[in-house]
């Protein structure tokens, strides 16, 4: 575990080593005073003359050692914390890089709460070994080892007595370690579950408020919190008795030295000054040994966390290469594409050619696989079989960055960062000038609602874009796509949140985004795609038909069914409007 943690330090490893050196020097200064105490006691025991000057000299030496200890310890801590927090920074950055390249499914499976826990809490756990356990632990172990070696040189019998309490303490610690590890898994899983539930509960607050808090989600919330309490206490309870035993035994290095050592002196096996020396040194090593012991209870947790982080770091990323985009054009080919989120396949052998500059619509019942097909094109996931190509180049044979540069993807629910709307749009082209951003916003029909906002385009979007309505968020994301001006555009239900009036504006914005591009549109409202160059009908993960609107209307029963449903919903919309109109008339009378 320590090796792995040290690997995380990267360029800051030297600082960690410097911290270890400072702590070691500090520890020597912490133990040395006991040597000077011995120097005062020894002549007294030998009934030799002790001058005041001699005593003052030794007391001064003790004071200097303790002062040096304070300085070196502080210096060591400052170095170790410097290395630790720089390592945490590196770790969080590399986790973020890792996350960006992982298939989306892995993140969704873990849940936002668990991923947040990993980024914040788990990474923070590494601080303890780096800032304390490694530098202080090494110093707190090395010095007692050296002191015990000195004791052996003075009198091996007394040295063995000083060591005698350690195996008992170690045994207690070993048992605690084993027992703690067995409960750790439950504790950790319950912590992850609680995190996940809390995040979900907060995200779903609107539903919680509308329905009542006695509902299923609140019960789950309450349960998970209680479970966390129970598992944590169970883990602690397993550790506490053993912790108490070793905490009481280990510092008592003099436990056997004083009674048995006195007997040895009386029997003439050892001398009184040697007993005094070993006793002084025993008291000297108690503090470092106790400090080292303090780290052990947390080692189980750190070990678990490091394994967890390592597991995340070793998750296979989506397959990509360093190559740039070399496709011959911006046509798209799905070749025998199969895909499963988990075990069950949701797309079966899809073969589809989308010519450059054409508009292709994907239609089908809900759950038929339209969005999944689009997500495979933007490489959120690796295909399970077959290949997705652009201009003949497999998207797995180019970098994610190269692919991203070719595609603007406007999803159903667009996330906006809590930065200004201007900056949110600028994400589409980071080097765009303010004027370019504003022109894109205008083309995306954002002008009217931006004018209503006090700070206009400089308004903050709010957490996740919550400041704006669904339709406004979509227009901001369309502005982003207009600014990006990528040759391929994927629109997933881009008008999902639109009322008829806004839909018209949105269609103008869409027309702006797709002009001259290779376009894939996923639409439930079939009326908006009747002029598409090709309409692909998906059914339960199969591409069952493709053609123009007229062709499909005369030959494809599945499309006819979808069209009939679209027509009746349009009529329903008209009659709702008529009803509202009638109501207005009645009210005015
Ligand atoms: N993250 C996921 N994990 C597991 N299964 C998923 C996931 N996302 C979608 N599915 C499943 O994959 C199938 C295809 O879903 P997809 O979202 O592609 O359908 P869709 O045609 O776009 O539906 P809609 O029109 O309702 O958006 C569905 O059975 C769905 O339950």
From TrEMBL:
Per UniProt, what is the membrane topology? Answer: Multi-pass membrane protein
Q: Which spans are transmembrane here?
A: 20-41, 53-75, 156-177, 244-266, 272-290
- Give a Gene Ontology cellular component term annotated to this protein: plasma membrane
Q: Is Cell wall biogenesis/degradation found in the keyword set? A: no
PROSITE patterns reported for this sequence:
ABC_TM1F, ABC_TRANSPORTER_1, ABC_TRANSPORTER_2
GO terms for MF = ABC-type transporter activity; ATP binding; ATP hydrolysis activity; ATPase-coupled lipid transmembrane transporter activity
Record-given protein name: ABC transporter ATP-binding protein
Q: Which organism is it from?
A: Sedimentibacter hydroxybenzoicus DSM 7310
């Amino acid at each position: 575990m320590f090796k792995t943690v040290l690997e995380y330090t990267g360029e800051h490893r030297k600082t960690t080593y410097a911290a270890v050196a400072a702590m070691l020097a500090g520890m020597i200064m912490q133990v040395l005073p006991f040597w000077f105490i011995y120097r005062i006691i020894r002549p007294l025991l030998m009934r030799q003359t002790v001058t005041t000057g001699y005593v003052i000299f030794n007391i001064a030496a003790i004071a200097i050692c303790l002062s040096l200890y304070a300085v070196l310890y502080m210096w060591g801590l400052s170095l170790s914390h410097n290395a630790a927090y720089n390592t945490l920074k590196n770790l969080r950055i590399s986790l973020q890089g890792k996350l960006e390249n992982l298939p989306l499914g892995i993140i969704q499976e873990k849940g936002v709460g668990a991923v947040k826990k990993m980024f914040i809490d788990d990474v923070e756990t590494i601080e303890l070994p780096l800032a304390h356990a490694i530098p202080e632990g090494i110093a707190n172990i090395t010095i007692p080892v050296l002191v015990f070696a000195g004791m052996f040189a003075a009198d091996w019998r007394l040295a063995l007595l000083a060591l005698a309490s350690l195996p008992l303490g170690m045994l207690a610690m070993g048992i605690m370690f084993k027992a703690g590890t067995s409960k750790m898994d439950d504790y950790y899983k319950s912590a992850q579950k609680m995190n996940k539930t809390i995040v979900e509960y907060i995200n779903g607050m609107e539903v919680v408020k509308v329905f009542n808090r006695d509902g299923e989600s609140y019960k789950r919330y309450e349960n998970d919190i209680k479970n966390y309490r129970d598992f944590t206490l169970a883990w602690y309870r397993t550790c506490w008795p053993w912790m108490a035993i070793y905490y009481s035994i280990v510092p008592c290095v003099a436990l056997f030295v004083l009674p048995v050592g006195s007997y040895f002196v009386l029997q003439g096996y050892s001398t009184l000054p040697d007993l005094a020396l070993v006793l002084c040194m025993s008291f000297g090593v108690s503090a470092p040994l106790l400090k080292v012991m303090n780290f052990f209870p947390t080692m189980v947790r750190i070990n678990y966390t490091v394994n967890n982080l390592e597991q995340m770091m070793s998750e296979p990323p989506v397959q990509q290469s360093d190559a740039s985009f070399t496709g011959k054009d911006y046509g798209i080919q799905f070749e025998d594409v199969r895909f499963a989120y988990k075990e069950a396949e949701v797309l079966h052998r899809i073969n589809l050619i989308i010519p450059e500059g054409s508009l292709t619509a994907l239609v089908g019942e809900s759950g038929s696989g339209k969005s999944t097909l689009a997500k495979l094109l933007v490489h959120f996931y690796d295909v399970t079989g077959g290949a997705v190509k652009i201009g003949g180049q497999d998207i797995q044979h180019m970098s994610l960055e190269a692919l991203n540069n070719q595609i603007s993807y406007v999803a159903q629910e667009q996330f906006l960062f809590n930065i200004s709307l201007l900056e949110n749009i600028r994400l589409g082209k980071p080097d765009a000038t303010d004027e370019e951003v504003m022109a894109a916003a205008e083309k995306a029909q954002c002008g009217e609602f931006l004018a209503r906002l006090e700070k206009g385009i400089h308004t903050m979007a709010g957490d996740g874009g919550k400041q704006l309505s669904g339709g406004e968020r979509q227009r901001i994301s369309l502005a982003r796509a207009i600014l990006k001006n990528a040759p391929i555009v994927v629109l997933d239900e881009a008008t999902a949140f639109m009322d008829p009036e806004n839909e018209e504006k949105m269609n103008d914005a869409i027309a702006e985004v797709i002009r001259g591009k290779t376009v894939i549109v996923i639409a439930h409202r079939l009326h908006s795609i009747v002029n598409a160059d090709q309409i692909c009908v998906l059914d339960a993960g199969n591409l069952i038909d493709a053609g123009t609107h007229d062709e499909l209307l005369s030959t494809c029963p599945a499309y006819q069914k979808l069209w009939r449903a679209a027509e009746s919903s349009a009529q329903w919309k008209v009659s709702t409007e008529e009803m509202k109109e009638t109501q207005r008339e009645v009210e005015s009378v």
